[in-house]
Write a structure and sequence with these properties.
The complex is a heterodimer of chains A (183) and B (200). By secondary structure, chain A is an all-alpha fold. Chain A folds into two domains: 1-113, no CATH class; 114-183. Chain A has eight helices and no strands. In chain A, α5 packs across α6 (88-109). The longest helix of chain A is centred in the C-terminal third of the chain and has 28 residues, at 149-176. Chain A starts with a helix and ends in a 7-residue tail after the last helix. In chain A, 36% of the residues are buried. Chain B is 38% helix and 22% strand. In chain B, the strands form two sheets. An eight-stranded mixed beta sheet of chain B has the order 1-10-9-4-5-6-2-3, with helices on both faces. Classes of the chains: A mainly alpha (183), B alpha+beta (200).
Chain lengths: 183, 200
């Protein structure tokens, strides 16, 4: 929890926020995921205390997962990245909702999800990263008005690398540790 | 317990779809540019009445163009990329408008967003290169650089220095109706569509 709070405080610091947001890759693939991780670390004691089901409202982890999925989709929209840079209100919404609606529900829901669901999510994440990476690499127009065209191409390339790393990680895990109940 | 989770899941989906619908203007747009074009098409916008200076050195206010529709584009003369496509579209439009003088009067306006380098002399040379006659097609810059942000903001143009002495900018053809309001925004290669929308 302390680590999560510390990470959050560091991310909120204006010079750090401005530095990460200066690049499209830093904004989308570093700042937003780190904010989610901070939220997850802050919420972890609740999950550890066995209260992740939240009195039955998060039984099976599916409601929490759905909240996180919608929040991820919203914050991956090019329009929202632009808006976070131009509107302090949207920026504040990002710093609030990413930890609260992505990181925290994922931390609570992940341990409750059946192994098949976890594998499904991991496989989907990697394939979506690949598709998104390819789209960003070949898009003829700038999708974010606040970022330069070459940064969009860099983001696309990084997403493709992330997708490949996730797939190799999944394959390595499947080969090396089939008995472990990680998923 | 399961019933609670079901309700929670349904609530999450309903809330998620509502938020997603709101931030995509009803699942129609995902980019800032797309949202702006949709908003303009639904509700035409008044434009700031800035003073421009054309290739002949004539100063005029944007409001002075009212009375006839104007197709507007933004560029800078040293642009190595998309501005050339826009210029060729405007050349084709100008040729078309010259050949049919009896049709509805429509004028063309190209505005530089780089007044520091695009001086009056630069614009005069550029006008000759692209064949802008100064009547149907005027090439202009803001008279006062202070007025540039308001002008760009009014049209929804974002021009960011790209670190290599150029700009990253959104390129489009802006349709300003005879009443002086920005009414539609077209892709850089949709000159013919913009003309057709004006009955030209």
């Amino acid at each position: 929890m302390i680590a999560g709070l510390l990470l959050y405080v560091v991310l909120v610091l204006p010079p750090i926020a401005a530095w990460l947001e200066g690049r499209m890759t830093g904004h989308m693939l570093v700042q937003i995921p780190l904010l989610a991780i901070a939220g997850g670390l802050i919420a972890r004691p609740v999950a550890r205390a066995g209260r992740a089901e939240l009195a039955g409202f998060n039984a099976g982890g599916i409601p929490g997962l759905l909240i996180a999925v919608f929040a991820v989709v919203v914050w991956m929209l090019p329009r929202m990245l632009d808006a976070a840079l131009s509107s302090p209100l949207v920026e504040a919404a990002k710093f609030t909702t990413v930890p609260l609606l992505i990181g925290a529900p994922l931390a609570l829901s992940w341990p409750l999800l059946p192994p098949v669901a976890r594998g499904f999510i991991w496989a989907n994440l990697s394939s979506h990263a690949a598709v998104l990476g390819w789209l960003y690499s070949v898009a003829p127009n700038r999708l974010c008005t606040r970022y330069l065209f070459d940064q969009q191409a860099v983001l696309g390339a990084v997403l493709l690398v992330v997708a490949l790393a996730m797939l190799f990680g999944l394959a390595a895990y499947a080969i090396a540790a089939p008995k472990l109940n990680f998923f | 317990m399961r019933l609670r989770a079901l309700f929670a899941a349904l609530a999450a989906v309903a809330f998620g779809l509502a938020v997603l619908g709101a931030v995509t203007d009803g699942f129609q747009v995902v980019t800032t540019e797309g949202a702006w074009r949709l908003a303009v098409a639904e509700r035409p916008r008044p434009l700031p009445d800035v003073t421009l200076v054309d290739q002949s050195g004539r100063a005029f206010r944007l409001s002075a163009l009212r009375g006839t529709p104007v197709l507007v584009e933004f560029f800078y003369t040293t642009c190595p990329t998309i501005c050339g496509l826009l210029a060729s579209q405007f050349q084709a439009l100008a040729d078309h408008l010259v050949e049919r003088p009896s049709g509805r009067a429509i004028s063309l306006l190209s505005v530089s967003f780089d007044p520091a380098r695009d001086t009056a002399a630069e614009l005069a040379g550029y006008a000759v290169r692209v064949g802008a006659d100064g009547q149907i097609w005027r090439i202009a810059r803001v008279a006062e650089p202070d007025e540039l942000p308001a002008l760009l903001g009014g049209f929804g143009v974002v021009a960011l220095p790209d670190g290599a002495a150029g700009f990253a900018h959104n390129a489009a053809i802006y349709l300003v109706e005879a009443d002086g309001r920005l009414a539609r925004i077209y892709d850089p290669d949709q000159g013919a569509e913009a003309l057709a929308a004006l009955g030209g």
